[in-house]
Amino acid sequence: MAVSNNITACITLLALICAVPVIASGIWFASAQGEECARLARWPVAILGGLLLLAALAGFVGAYWNRRRLLAFYLCAMAVLIVLLIVLLVWAFAVTRGSGGYAVVGRNYDDYRLDGFSMWLRGYVSDDPDRWEKIKACLAGSNTCKKLAQERAFTNADRFFQSHLSPLQSGCCKPPSVCGFGYVSPTVWTNPSHPAADPDCGLWSNDPARLCYECESCKAGLLEALRDQWHKVNIALIVATISLVFLYLVGCSAYKNAQAASLFRHYKW
């Protein structure tokens, strides 16, 4: 192989490696269902990662065996896929901007409401009742609130108020703090002092199968958990995007040099 082809082969191999974290993030995002019982945009990340891998593989084969058409396909396909990756990142940041969490005096955890989230996220849990019914059934059957109820460290209200709760635990397993319920246990509360302070106050139930799963705060807690998921995925996507853009620019330069060298040899002979 010519020097330029060697460089291009190395670059496409690195691009192939860069596609791996995108695929890994996509597979985790699409298949690993945790306590959130939901996934936003389950498959686009995995599909995009797979396409990046195929394009990089085609580029490597084209560079290693000097197949110019494969190299040209690699450059065109990678340009399109990088643009799609950037679009996905912009969409993710736009959709997950803002948070519904707010601090409560005397509490070490946040409470949650829907107002702080983007319209798209609010629509995800509010526009389709059937979707929320499925999520709610999953949450009720999960260990999210069961583990909290069995926690022996919360022997009194002060210990509970100073604990660190996940967004789902805060939103779904207890009533909103503004209601002024009296603490009995993490999932048992009585005698609200401000029952009209929030519509969720009337939706709270000490029944383990109901708790606050119908509450807006539960939907908000779910969205906060999904935001955390996307922020983790975004880190891998940002690193992969920056690396792929750099490798693509270097690859274009190496490809042009290879073309120029080939043309020079043609006229030389």
Automatic annotation (TrEMBL):
<protein>
    <recommendedName>
        <fullName>Tetraspanin-2</fullName>
    </recommendedName>
</protein>
<feature type="transmembrane region" description="Helical">
    <location>
        <begin position="42"/>
        <end position="65"/>
    </location>
</feature>
<feature type="transmembrane region" description="Helical">
    <location>
        <begin position="235"/>
        <end position="255"/>
    </location>
</feature>
<keyword id="KW-1133">Transmembrane helix</keyword>
<dbReference type="GO" id="GO:0016020">
    <property type="term" value="C:membrane"/>
</dbReference>
<keyword id="KW-0472">Membrane</keyword>
<dbReference type="InterPro" id="IPR018499">
    <property type="entry name" value="Tetraspanin/Peripherin"/>
</dbReference>
<dbReference type="Pfam" id="PF00335">
    <property type="entry name" value="Tetraspanin"/>
</dbReference>
<comment type="similarity">
    <text>Belongs to the tetraspanin (TM4SF) family.</text>
</comment>
<feature type="signal peptide">
    <location>
        <begin position="1"/>
        <end position="24"/>
    </location>
</feature>
<dbReference type="InterPro" id="IPR044991">
    <property type="entry name" value="TET_plant"/>
</dbReference>
<feature type="transmembrane region" description="Helical">
    <location>
        <begin position="72"/>
        <end position="94"/>
    </location>
</feature>
<dbReference type="GO" id="GO:0009734">
    <property type="term" value="P:auxin-activated signaling pathway"/>
</dbReference>
<keyword id="KW-0732">Signal</keyword>
<keyword id="KW-0812">Transmembrane</keyword>
